[in-house]
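Support case: user asked for a sample of complex input and structure output to validate their parser. Sending the pair below.
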Amino acid sequence: MTGEMLKPVIAVTDARVSFGAVKALDGVTLSIMPGECVGLVGHNGAGKSTIVSVINGGLAPHEGSVSGEGETIARYGINAARARGVRCVFQELSLCPNLTIVENVRLMHRQLGGFGWRRRAKAVIEASLDAVFPGHGIESDRTVGELSIAERQMVEIAMAFSDAGIAPRLVILDEPTSSLDASLAEQMLVHVRRFVKAGGSVIFISHILHEILTTADRIVVMKDGRIVAARPAAAFSEHSLVEAMGSVVKGEARRRTARDLGAAPVVLEQAGRGLSFTARAGEIVGLAGLAGHGQTRMLMALHGANSSDWLPARDPAVTFVAGDRRLNGVFELWSILRNFSIASLGDMARGGFVRTGDEDARGAEWKKRIEIRTQDMTNRILSLSGGNQQKVLFARALATRAPVVLMDDPMRGVDVGTKQEVYEIVRQEAANGRTFVWYSTEMEEVCLCDRVYVFREGEIVAELAGDAVSEANILAASFEGAAA
Amino acid sequence: MRTRISADAVRLLIPALSLTVLLAAVFWLQPRAMSYVGLNLLFNLAVPIALATIAQMLIMAVNDLDLSMGTFVSFVACVTATFLRDAPLLGVLILIGAIGVYALLGIVIHLRNLPSIVVTLGMSFVWAGLAVLLLPAPGGQAPDWVRALMTMKPPFAPIAIVASIVIAAVAHLIVMRSSLGVLIRGVGGNERSVERAGWSVLGARAAAYGLAGLFAVLAGIALVGLTTSADANIALRYTLLSIAGVILGGGEFIGGRVSPIGAVVGALTLTLAGSFLSFLRISPDWQIGAQGAILIVVLALRLVLNRIETREKRR
């Protein structure tokens, strides 16, 4: 399909970028042809985000060049990239929450200005939303802060595909489906294929491998700042992709052996609409169902019912691992160590003063135990990649003495290798008698649980245990009412 | 549709409601205030405060805070009562220069990544010093045109009301409707995404500070128009009044959530609170405390409404 006549939309030649001693990009050559969807996969810190920054103009490579249409562009920057129709949907949501959707469109499209821009911006975004997510039901004069996380992601994706003077030619999607449920993700993937068929180009980054395999024409695998494999998608399978990434993969996430926990004491109970919720000591309880059907609210209710509003308990009953790291997970200005120790300061303090020796020792122990990739625990938390930040949040929760850990879809946008490591930790801790209540949007994770509650429209509609925990059963329970 | 209206309305509802309640109370205590002259007397000191509040709001829209507002307005007042009257050209140049300094502050704060509180706190001493150099003792005189402007008697509504409406309308146009306003609020909301869209955040911040300087200059001029003479300490209260006005009007310290109409209403409310307490014959010793109490009540009300709103949203 890449005929001799076609010239790449953007080509990066031998790009090198290093941050201090770390080589983020070590000679990457990548060209994106028109009418091509390139899947980009790689382990955490493989350089995916860096190559994306180079292509969208946010970062000038220290060596190497960027060319468009076969000509080298001397001063390639954000504006040059946008003028060529390069658009980007970032992993973390990046709209202005205080502005309306229309105003965000105005910011995103610089050429929209002039009298009457509100009307034009409204037309642009509504056309695009209708095209990508038919039947979306989002009004374009709403403030972004009022939208749900899935709606924000939809707006952001629609924004990237919108045409306001400069048509999008290369759209970079960095984990675009992480907050979307299956049907919305499918709508988006359909649009990606339509866009590519019409001659547009897409760089698609996702940790959900089957999305990549079914959507991309060509898959580029990165590792340690280099491209280690680039082949047509048909030449890869899920297994060979993971193998090419070279992460510590133990095949499919192994189902835990069924354990009989009937005798274990009940540690959590919550009655609500639908079935009531119980969790036993040492159990991993999954909360499944379509995104936004009341799972997070259940976790908040469990947390609220088991902790005091006024005073921190000496022996906390529950601890929480947040899903939205940036919103309610990390303290951005603090060091890794502080971020880790905040939940268990009570254990490391005497007479109201923190014993820094204890804190350092605990930090070092957990750094080793869950392999936080940093030289120094006193580095700023933001110096870590997303996956490692999430590990710190896990360590924060696990280091407390709380017997119950609530997890609110904590693996969003975390790479495969880190996931496997965290699964292993969860398994060990559960074997030691800890209880996990785990909301996840990924089927693979739900299938790791001993018992699963499936949510629909704010209530628990099904309880699956042991061998009944399977993708088919969960899907059936999530869609049961919707189909009727 | 319904939620959108309620979210926006709640932001304006509280300031509007508190202003109405205070006004009703004042009219009840002193029915003679319910006249053209009475209203003007009640509100004319609100005009410079409203302008200063808009200035502060522009700075708060980019997640910064200006602690030099009071001394800057005092400095402008001193320039207005001296140079602007005696040597208009030089006076205008000084004021334009002062606006330029404000824009420069925005640039320095952005480039060096400094906390705005520290920089403006430092600048407050500079402005105060300059003001004392200009007018070591209270004095000077307002230029005639400024005086004429502030004592104008338009038909139907007193100048204080007309001016407040004009200020609110102009600020609304700039901050809420124009592209520049969207850009400034965007910087407050999510600086990184504004940068990624190819805008110059530096430029946006400089524009916000420059505009703030312009409104603060207008505040100083308006103040001298009312008081006829100036003093180096004439507007020291404005720093906190302007911040309180923005918050009272539904604005927030961070996140680019501001409301120009709310800010003007907030400034009016604050001024009226002072008059209300005088009408109640509360001794001046207690007035500042009582003013604070009014502020706390209003803000508590807003908090309660916010809670109700989020609870409804969750339902």
